[in-house]
Amino acid sequence: MRASGPTRRAVLGGAAAATALTVVPAFQGRAAAATPSYRWRQVVIGGTGFVSGVLFHPSVRGLAYARTDIGGAYRWDDRSARWIPLNDDLGWDDWNLLGVEAMAVDPAHPDRVYLALGTYTQSWAGNGAVLRSEDRGATWARTDLTVKLGGNEDGRGTGERLLVDPRDSDTLWLGTRHDGLLKSTDRGTTWSTVSGFPGTPSAGGQGVTLLVAAGRTLYAGWGDSDGTTPNLFRTADGTTWEAVPGQPSGTAAKVPIRASYDCHTRELYVTYADAPGPNGQSDGSVHKLATGKGHGTWTDVTPVKPGGTTSDGSSDTFGYGGVSVDARRPGTLVVSTNDRWAAGDTVYRSTNGGRTWTSLKDSAVLDVSETPFLTFGADRPKFGWWIQALALDPYDSKHIVYGTGATLYGTRDLKHWAPQIRGLEETSVRHLISPPAGQAHLLSGLGDVGVMYHERLTASPSRGMASNPAFGSATGLAQAAAKPSYVVRTGFGDHGNGAFSNDGGRTWAPFATQPALAKDAPGPIAVNTDGGVLLWTFVHWDGTKYPAQRSTDNGAGWSEVPTFPKGATPVADPADPRRFYAYDTDTGTLYASTDGGLSFTAGATGLPSGDTQFELVAAPGRVGDLWLSVKWNGLYRSTDGGATFTKLTSCWASYTLGFGKAAEGADYPALYLVGSTESITAVYRSDDEARTWVRINDDRHQWGWIGETISGDPRVYGRVYIATNGRGIQYGDVV
């Protein structure tokens, strides 16, 4: 018995069909199955996102932490040489906490670690929170704040904005962007605003950019100076704050980015830029302050002044980012440039307190064989960009790590560098395809790093990101259902925005031509079941929608489809090459084509519209079997090609829906859902056409916002691939 109403397969005519709003009771005549046991793992890519901070523990060899802007925090496990994710237990309602604003460790208590979480400060985002752990992040206690934090906003690479007071381990300090300086005297359990702090908070400013201890004196950087007013303050008693006398001023010292203290020479090093970064910087400097002998003396130790000219005539503009002193060698430190696109970013090292510097990039040998995507389609990888996270191991003077917009590089000899990224997956995932045949069980379309062919799930794709052409962010990925060797992709690229593959996604070639809209507004693409027809849609970043374009010659020529609803996502029928579908979210109307995408006519009307998220998917191997996933309205199903739809009540919210191999004895594919069947948003599987659902993830595996896309594996029953927004691709297998 089908749970979704009529089984007839009507061909849509010119007139709009009446809306069907049949409601099917939840759990129709069948009890829910027992919760299955799943094993969850990461599909290995290796980083791919901005690592905004790295912190070695000063008292424990081999212990370090990393933070990311949208993917939570990690602890380095020295035995296994990999990063352990610490925030996968944050669920759907806490997605805003996956951006880590700052982190702190307690030198006197090695097992204690603190995180300040909050991704955005906009009105639509939730408030921040502080997590505190007594077991290095294995478990957490949480305090919700009344202020917002911005772990994925400008300035996210500054810091750290969180500090354990060296005079009292129970006292913590937290710098905020718009609400001044906060203080806790009970190890982060409660917080209050520090009165008398000199910085004046502003609604759109940076606020406190860094907190650092220099002996028993605390320093705070202030990111809202105009370059003439003070931006570095200090307190010796934890109560009275003052502007540091003689501090540098001007554009090159407008924003304090990071600071590090040399306890041997009693000098505080500060990096500066004219903007908080990681982008938008054009000037910067490095200064040191004598806090011991020569107390109060500032010295400009900038390795290279920004603003010169490169060999090709380009202006060499940049700021300075990370700084870290050597705990074992007095006067030895490293600093990084940031946002240096003309000459390329580097890490400078000094062994004499900044009097002279050596660029480590100049002698660097980069080995990216473990994560080949880091070539980004070029002949060789870059040393890095957006370098604000920089750390020198306090137990090994030749062990340096630095973060980029895509990875963490590490060295043990100051010459040979390789990604130190195992276990850290920060990809924002847009598209997933699990092919029914071929070597790869998975193809993915990603933010920033294009499309990947995963011949193995346990190793970064050997081909790296798809090239010819290379894309930044993927906007579309589709496979011909009856011809899985044929795949197409779209995205933002400098040398074309669409490509096709005749070998399942291993190798690619650009479309011979592309519509003019593709350069600035490349949207999703669909291919019919035999690979003969392409439909490409276009949506500009400003929200402007355009009609679809159609090609019947593999992208050699394109023609507009005026009857296609502007901005809709095209969906190909997996069994009938003549059929395409599109859902107009503005009007709540299903459109269908039965002539290979030449024309579209309206089918069911009166369906949900105006919601923030819709997804139309077609059941594999079936003609006209459509499922409409509507964020706040649950699931709708049509078995007649979109002429009518039936609303299912087995779930009340549906964010994304996918299909996988059918259960043994079942004649319909397994369904996988990110949505809500009860009180929580979770990952569910149904083996009976959505009559019943079982939750398959658990409270330890939630990954924040996971509503972009989901796919089962058509060859392995129970296997599911989940797209996350900052934790890469997670996959689960029945155990």
TrEMBL record:
Keywords on record: Carbohydrate metabolism, Glycosidase, Hydrolase, Polysaccharide degradation, Signal
Molecular functions per Gene Ontology: hydrolase activity, acting on glycosyl bonds
CDD domains listed in its UniProt record: Sialidase_non-viral (cd15482)
GO BP field: polysaccharide catabolic process; xyloglucan metabolic process
Region spans: Disordered: 295-316
InterPro entries, alphabetized: TAT_signal, WD40/YVTN_repeat-like_dom_sf, Xyloglucanase_GH74
Protein family: Belongs to the glycosyl hydrolase 74 family.
Protein name, entry field: 1,4-beta-glucanase
Lineage: Bacteria, Bacillati, Actinomycetota, Actinomycetes, Kitasatosporales
